[in-house]
Inverse folding.
């Protein structure tokens, strides 16, 4: 048995010669075992993403019409601003805590 590698196949993206047992092209990094998704698959994923985005937009618009939704958004904004002042808390955590505080105060009356 020989331990010599041969470069007999080519990358389908950049056409550089690659080792037979290579998993990725050493030139462009393309995955040599990857299967290109079909146009049908890409269309399905795009439609799903657009539909989900539309649902999120509709839900957030409905939530912001209510007084509670507005207060939670304000709490999230205040929490995010305060989190930028306090270096060990990220703005996402601050927004989450701010909205949570407003929701707690609202629903425990």
């Amino acid at each position: 048995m020989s331990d010599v590698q041969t470069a007999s196949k080519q990358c389908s993206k950049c056409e550089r010669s690659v080792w037979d047992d290579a998993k990725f092209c050493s030139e462009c990094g393309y995955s040599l075992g990857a299967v290109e998704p079909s146009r049908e698959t890409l269309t399905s994923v795009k439609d799903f993403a657009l539909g989900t985005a539309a649902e999120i937009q509709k839900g957030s618009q409905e939530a912001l019409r209510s007084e509670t939704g507005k207060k939670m958004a304000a709490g999230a904004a205040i929490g995010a601003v305060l989190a930028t002042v306090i270096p060990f808390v990220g703005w996402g955590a601050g927004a989450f805590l701010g909205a949570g505080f407003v929701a707690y105060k609202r629903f425990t009356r």
User: Anything to note?
Assistant: The mean pLDDT is 77. The longest strand covers residues 9-10. Helices lie at 39-65, 67-85, 91-107. Residues 74 and 99 are 8 Å apart (CA to CA).
